[in-house]
Design brief:
globular; 5-stranded mixed β-sheet; single chain
Length: 76
């Protein structure tokens, strides 16, 4: 399966929910808690062999994980 867009876990103020989105697409799922959204996002990123970006409520990225082949040589 070719690499698809990066997966983002973001908070939607207007909906009051955490959503999982694939870059270049629309929301895949919505969740009441951040933990639920993180699990769903992580599963999707592993399946797509892409990167997972977890955002805070204010939109800043707090965590970034690559699943599949990481183009960087450094570990960690």
């Amino acid at each position: 399966m070719p690499k698809q867009g990066d997966v983002h876990v973001i908070h939607r103020q207007d909906q009051g929910k955490w959503v999982v989105e694939v870059e270049g697409g629309r929301a895949r799922s919505s969740h009441t808690t951040k933990a639920e959204a993180e699990r769903a996002g992580r599963d999707l990123a592993r399946k797509n062999k892409s990167e997972l970006l977890i955002h805070r409520r204010d939109g800043k990225i707090t965590e970034r994980n690559t699943y599949g082949r990481d183009p960087r040589r450094s570990r960690g």
